[in-house]
Every structure is written in C-alpha cells, then in structure tokens.
Amino acid sequence: MAATIRDVARLAGVSPSTVSRAISLPGMVNATTRARVTAAVEQLGYEPNRAARGLITGRTGTIGLVVPDLANPFFASITKGVQARARQHDVAVFVADTDEDPAAEAGLVRALSKQVDGIVLCSPRATDDELTAIAQDTTVVLVNRTAEGILGITYDNEDGMRQAVAHLVALGHRRIAWVGGPATSWSTQHRGLGLRNAVEELRARLVPVGNFAPTYEGGMAAADQVLATRATAVVAYNDLVAIGLLARLHARGISVPGDLSVVGVDDITMSRMARPALTTVRLPKQEAGRIAVELLLAMLDDPESSVGTQGTLHGELIVRDSTGPAPYNRKVP
Amino acid sequence: MAATIRDVARLAGVSPSTVSRAISLPGMVNATTRARVTAAVEQLGYEPNRAARGLITGRTGTIGLVVPDLANPFFASITKGVQARARQHDVAVFVADTDEDPAAEAGLVRALSKQVDGIVLCSPRATDDELTAIAQDTTVVLVNRTAEGILGITYDNEDGMRQAVAHLVALGHRRIAWVGGPATSWSTQHRGLGLRNAVEELRARLVPVGNFAPTYEGGMAAADQVLATRATAVVAYNDLVAIGLLARLHARGISVPGDLSVVGVDDITMSRMARPALTTVRLPKQEAGRIAVELLLAMLDDPESSVGTQGTLHGELIVRDSTGPAPYNRKVP
DNA sequence: GTCGAGTCTGCAATCGGTTGCAGGTCGTGT
DNA sequence: ACACGACCTGCAACCGATTGCAGACTCGAC
C-alpha cells in the first residue's frame, strides 16, 4: 500500500541504501542524487516504516508515560507537557493509566518497556526498591519524586511550603494546620518537612491533622478535624483536598477566609473556579512533563552522561480569595 | 539483550517456527511440545518483539487517539476509557493532543496514521469534508460526532436535552435560556435541536443567547445575557460553561437556584464540587472511549463488516442543587 | 602513465519474527 | 503389506529498513 524505500529508489534511479542515506545522513550523498531522492520521496509521499527501522536500529522512537490517573487534572497536565515536547522530537508517546493501583504498575511498566525506548513514570506510591528494580532494565525518568540513582524531575516542596507559610504568617496566622496526603507519598513527606522548617523559621506553630486521601472526599473528611485544632489557617496536601475542605467548611457555616484561611498546592484549573477562589502554590506541571522528556531523551542519546540526574522546578504562590487576615478572637499567641 | 524467538527455540529444542506457532496458533502444535515451548518462554521471560511482528503482519498492535485538549476533563475521561479497553485487548495507545488547533489536526492524524492500525478521533470542530478525507486512507472511529460513512460513537443529545427540559418544566420553569458552544460544533447543533424539540413538546419557550467558548470564561461571558432574557432557568452547553455562569451569577448577587436554575451537560468531576453542586446531564465518557476501541478493533478485524457503523450512548440527568422551583415573580406565561 | 586519496554508491547481511510449502511420522483401513 | 490421510514440524522466503564493506570513479600529483 504505502510506498517503500525500494519504490523511492526505483523512481530516483538509485539503490535503497542511497535513499536511506540521503534521508538520515545527507552529508554522505552527492547533492544532485540527494535532490533526485528527495524529489522521489516527495512525489510518493514516502515515510520510512518505523517498525522496520526500529528492528535494525533497536530504537522504536517511542516513549511510555505511566500515570496513576488520567482524570486527575494534575496528571492530565503532566501528560499534556510530555506529549507536546515528545512531538517536537518526533517521538510518539504511549500513555498508560494504572487506575491508582500501585500493584498493577510494575507489570504495566514491564510490558511497556519492551515496546518503548524509555519511560516517564509518575509513581507517588511505589517504594524506592520497586523503582530501582524497574530502572534496572529500562531507562526511566521519575516525575515528582526521587529515588536513589534514578533520573528525575521534582518540585522544590520546601520552598513552596515556605512561600505559603510566609504568606499566612504575614496575615497574622500563628497556628497552622496541615492536612497530609497518603503517608507513603513522597510529596506528603517533603511538604510536611518543608512546612516544619518554615514554621520554625517564621515562629509559628504547625498542627498536623493526619493523612487523608488526596481527593475531594479526603478534604471533606479532614475539615472537622482541622476545625478542632483551633488553627486559623490550613495548608492542604493539594488543591483537590483544599476544595473538599472548602465544601465541608461551608456546610459547617465556617467563613473562608473570615474564620479560617485555606491554602492548596498544585493550582489545577478547578482552583480558580472554587468559591472562594483558592490560594495555592502553583506547580509548573506541563513544564515538568517537558523536562522529563528532555531528560529521558538525553539519557537515551548518551547513557553515560547521567545528565544532571535530577531537575528541580520551583512553585509559585498564587494568592486568591481563600486566605485573609487571621481573626482576632481565634489568634493564639 | 532481550530473549529472541531463536533463544526460546534452542532452549525448547524446536525450530523458531514452532515457537511462533505455539504462541499464536496453539491448536497447531502438539500438546507436549507446546508445553516445552511455554516452559522455555517462561524461563527466559520472552516477549515477542512487536516491531518484528508488525513488519510481517502489517499490524502494529497500536491505535492512536487524537483529542483537542487532554487537560479538559471531558477528554481526559474519554482517554481513560480508550486506554483501559485497549489494554484489555493488548493494544497500545498513542495519545496526541492537538491543543485545540483544528488546523494541526489533519497533519497530526496523517503522521500518526503511519504508525498505528487505526485512530480514535475526537474532533468537534473539523468539517465533514476534512474528516472524510482523513478516513480515506486510515481506519477512523469518531467520538461525539458523526460524519457520512465514518464509524462513530455519539451521545443521544436529543434525549439528554429532553430530560433536562422535562425536569425544569416540572419545576415550573417555562422560559428557558440556552447558552450554546461554538457554532460549528456538532454537539452545539444537536443539543440546540434537542432543546427546541423538547420545549415545543413540553409547551415551554426556548431563548437562545448565542454561542460562547466551551469554557469557564465562556460561561462568565454569557451570564449577564442570560439574566437579560428574563428566563428562570438556563441550560449550558457543558459543565464548564455552567460553572462559569454560576460564578458570574454569584458575583451579581443572583441566587441559584432561588432566582435562576442552571443545568450543565457532561458531569465532569468538578460539577459535584461546584457551589451549588451542579445539576447536569451525565454523559458516560469512559464508556464512549471503550466502545470506540471496540468499534475500531472490530473494523480492523473485518473491514467489510462495517459493524453497526454507529453507536449511541444515552445520558442521564443528575439532579443536584443548582435547579429548583421557578420563582413566582419571574415566571412568564 | 601510475598511484593514491577522496568521494560516492551498491551489494548483501541483518534485525526478529511469520507463514506457505514440503516432508516426516503415525495410525488406520483394506 | 500398502496406501492414504491426519497431524506436526522444519526450511526458507519475506516484511522494510540500516549499515559494514568493497568497488567505481574522479581528480591531482609525481
């Protein structure tokens, strides 16, 4: 059906090898024959068959992306970034959704690894050991977490949390609640750490209220416990949780930010549509996806380079309407 | 590096052809040799190289998915459905995001079509002619729209709109505004049509307020025009638009559903988190993705069958808090 | 005139599977 | 004992590209 390299060769009056070289090593062939070849390519609308090329070169020109949940806007944005940058490099992206099932993940990665040159992996829950096992026989770039000896791109959670705390302290808050995500999640650990450092530095108190699902429901579940802490502000694991908090607080008749200020993390689309619009630490999600692709492709080009081994992106506090001055009557010295 | 069919053959003491058949045509090989082969496969962790197989069979075992915007929760859900069902069939999915640029689309599809067996295409804006041109040389399944002679899966918009109108009429609404999406969009046209039929049948009035971007901003922009119609209820093109309406109405001090009832379409995750929680026509999005894959694979297996040529899915009205009885003082005879 | 260097170009092997065809073995019927 | 079919298995060609190697040709220098 489609034109093969032989068709092009015949039309151009050269051998297939010459066509191949004219395309991938233009310097090696005479300018006039190269012109004949490109004309023939043009005329037939020839595109090299990737499977055939991959067979001999061992490279498929394809990368895999594994995410916990495509419907989660955070991962959707990362996917978008990965996809856009990969296309610029003429690399196709296989997308796989593990449906939040860390157990399925390893199998999926293994299956995928046979078909791709490398994998971009968003795996907040997997253990370091699982990840190093995976990275053994596949080139992997981690997004939003680190693991010993594996390439990755992460956010500077410590700095992001410092920005949030500084904002709250400036508003007069001294007692700040923290709604963590899953205890095993890399982000939960680092955000908690950053928060502890920041409150210490800025002379405030941090009141952790435990670990919750990183979802709207998780936020709803956490809200009453947050109120019980008598904190005047709360930092949520992510925006989904913060929006859940907002909903339950509204139902309880608590005014945000009048009685309680709420800060999220991520800045998903939904956040500016929340009521009140959510103050949050914006994480450059598409950028993370783009950089992950760059790291992966660089690693594939030159496995020795261990390029940078690790990228870090900074968050940016976006102040909206869910944070305000601490209420006098609840302030705690 | 990885085991080849020859390694397996050597270990099992048979020829590569026998290994190949033991895997893909088990009935053709003797049970005992088949056992030896599968044991060897197991031991070596052998997986057939897809590129090599694709070269000879002409099938890549891969499908493409083209969507306007992965960050749009509607398309994210469809992607999720496609991806899940494809995996069940051991088919990989290339995902491409056109970034809402219909012009880029044709090129993308063409590039993709060389690498996949078929394509699932979400293309609300493309013209019928463009689509038929694309379907000329690639197997395509359309999602959420139809085009002459092309396989597709759509929603029964007429029925969905009838449900919404019936609900509103039962609440006493007689004058219903309609905020349309992009004029060229297939869904806008069919929803508008369904709405006109429904109001006629149910003895209400429909007041179209024009075409807006299918976004939160689109809804914000439409809100004041909706109020000017003196309608007591409004149906929005989709949930994003409805949520935009909600935001602007709140800013204007309009009570929903006290003064005005709002209905969306899609039921994206965000909708139940809106304030008030949004009444909407739920479209089974993942289901659409799954069915699209089934249609595509069936078509690829037997191109003659023209299987069904068209699937239709029904929406379901989800009543939440954004709809209520029509206010007496605004009711119009 | 010969030689050497430099520059293309073609031959043929190769990647890892699949499949048409031929051949071998075995059992059964006559 | 022979023929025949059924059932398996192996040989070898093939899919469409890439690439090491060698041959051809040009040009300049000695």
Automatic annotation (TrEMBL), chains A, B:
Q: Which InterPro entries match?
A: HTH_LacI, LacI/GalR-like_sensor, Lambda_DNA-bd_dom_sf, Peripla_BP_I
Tell me the Pfam families matching this sequence: LacI, Peripla_BP_3
Keywords (A to Z) from UniProt: DNA-binding, Transcription, Transcription regulation
Domain of life from the UniProt record: Bacteria
* PROSITE patterns registered for this protein in UniProt: HTH_LACI_1 (PS00356), HTH_LACI_2 (PS50932)
Q: Does the keyword Ribosomal protein apply?
A: no
Entries under SUPFAM superfamilies matching the protein: lambda repressor-like DNA-binding domains, Periplasmic binding protein-like I
Name listed for the protein in its UniProt record: LacI family transcriptional regulator
Query: From which organism does this entry originate?
Result: Kribbella kalugense
